[in-house]
Amino acid sequence: MQREYLTWQIAPFSQILINTYGDEVVVFDTGSGSTLALDPIAAATLCSINEEPQTNSSLTAKITETFLLFADTSLETYIDSLLHSLQQQNLIQPIPE
What we know:
It is built from 3 helices and 6 strands, in the order ββββαβααβ. It has helices spanning about 40-50, 55-65, 75-90; strands spanning about 5-10, 15-20, 25-30, 35-40, 55, 90-95. A 3-stranded antiparallel sheet has the order 5-1-6. Strands 2-3-4 form a 3-stranded antiparallel sheet, with helices on one face. The longest helix has 16 residues, at about 75-90.
């Protein structure tokens, strides 16, 4: 299945805590003990998935609305890359069909 059609959720063993310090966003995963520094778009993406499962297209729509951006291929590519990175860090996973 193509990645853009996946629905993403927080990994079941992860519990995400998000703190903002000025312009920096720090994420702590209590499940793994990992800490990450995220840019505002990455943090908003992870927060959205933490609230409820999201698809790539729903995330793109939320990011464009929140940050007043255009939904172009560079944003879609960034979000896809970000989701892959978050999955590789075991923070999110696709919902099985």
